[in-house]
Amino acid sequence: MTRLLLSLLIAASLTPAARAEDPKKDAAASAARPPSPGAHHQPRDILWAYEGEKGPAKWSEIEPGFRACNNGKRQSPVNIETRDAEKAGLKPIQFSYQPGNAEVVNTGHTIQVNLPDSGSARFDNLEHKLVQLHFHTPSEEKIDGMAQHMVAHLVHRAGDTRFAVVAVLFKLGKENKALKAVFENLPQRQGLRTDIKDFNPADLLPADPTYFAYTGSLTTPPCTEEVKWHVMKTPMEISYRQLAAFKALYKMNARPVQPLNGRRVQMFAQP
Question: Of 44, 170, 180, 263, which one's alpha carbon is 20 to 30 angstroms from that of 242?
Answer without folding.
Answer: 44
